[in-house]
Amino acid sequence: MSMSSASIPVFEVGLNALAALLDKAAAYAETKRIDPAVLLNARLFPDMFALTRQVQVVCDQAKNGGARLAGIDPPKYEDTEATLPELKARIAKTLAFVKTLDGGSIDAAASREVTFPLGPKNTGRMKGADYLNFFVLPNFHFHLATAYGILRHSGVEIGKLDFLGAIPISVT
């Protein structure tokens, strides 16, 4: 399996699933007459990121991780989203960027050292394959699962298939 096939489609399916989760959150808020800001600020525990930041980080892992693997500078997004439509726009922008990534460049990164920020003061370095498998994908899925968990815990009627999104599966 190539690095590009282990990353680009995973980002696309996950980001599309996240957008669909936000659609369900919007419908839930409207039906229950809940201010969507309640959902945007919801978190699983006081020291964890709220839903808005979880969505931003999912997008950041896809765009930053993909760009670094492709050997290009990632686009910078201002973390200013304050509504569900603004978060959906960020997801759409991220999806559009991910679709521009060159698969061959990502594949060539397997043994190349990738440098990336680790918080405000530290820098991490890993071989590309390790960066994808042990940093980018786990972080992408962690924040995606946490966003799902926040919405589910808040009462949004979603299930496992909503989290999985449109995965390529044949059922017999």
Which terms would index this structure?
172 residues; single chain; mainly alpha; two-stranded antiparallel sheet; 2 strands; Four Helix Bundle (Hemerythrin (Met), subunit A)
| Name of the CATH superfamily | dinb family like domain
CATH architecture: Up-down Bundle
The quaternary structure here is single chain
Average predicted confidence as pLDDT? 96
Structural class: mainly alpha
* Span of the ends, CA to CA: 25 Å
For the record, what CATH class applies? Mainly Alpha
Estimated share of beta-strand residues? 5-15%
Which consecutive residue ranges, at least 5 long each, have pLDDT under 50? none
Encode the helix/strand succession as letters. Answer: HHHHHEEHH
Helix content: 55-70%
In DSSP terms, counting alpha (H) and pi (I) runs of 4 or more, how many helices?
A: 7
Envelope shape: globular
Number of separate domains? 1
* Secondary structure tally: strands: 2
Examine the coordinates and then state which fold CATH places here, giving the name of the CATH topology. Four Helix Bundle (Hemerythrin (Met), subunit A)
- How would you characterize the largest beta sheet? 2 strands, antiparallel
Strand order of the largest sheet: 1-2
Radius of gyration: 16 Å
